[in-house]
From TrEMBL:
Residues 26-86 form the Transketolase C-terminal domain. It comes from the Bacteria. InterPro entries: Transketo_C/PFOR_II (IPR009014), Transketolase_C (IPR033248). This is Transketolase C-terminal domain-containing protein. It comes from Actinocatenispora rupis. The lineage of its organism: Bacteria, Bacillati, Actinomycetota, Actinomycetes, Micromonosporales.
Length: 103
């Protein structure tokens, strides 16, 4: 199964549990960000990290502190797993493209 492509995105967004073999996808994508709405211990992100090895850098976003009260959006933000956190993690791997005159 080839990695699916998403219009308007340079890198695919893939369902974590459907990925096999993970190192192949990691090399294809160049980097991996896993996002889990629970504690990281024993979670699928650990399997991705173990399977990927040195094929690509892996950033794991997960709930690391005891959650408090709030709306789902507030809790995701507090845990660092909201859309902004995912974008920060994903874009941390992106290298700025040199200006056209320098290519």
């Amino acid at each position: 199964m080839a990695p699916p492509r998403n219009p308007g995105r340079r890198r695919p967004v893939l369902p974590l549990l459907a990925l096999s073999p993970r190192p192949l996808y990691a090399r294809e994508c160049g980097a991996v960000v896993t996002v889990e709405d629970h504690r990281p211990e024993g979670a699928p992100g650990e399997a991705v990290l173990a399977d990927t090895g040195t094929a690509a850098p892996v950033t794991r976003l997960a709930v690391r502190d005891l959650p408090g009260s709030g709306t789902p959006a507030e809790l995701r933000h507090a845990a660092g797993i909201d859309a902004q956190a995912i974008m920060r993690a994903a874009t941390s791997f992106v290298r700025p493209r040199p200006p056209a005159h320098q290519r």
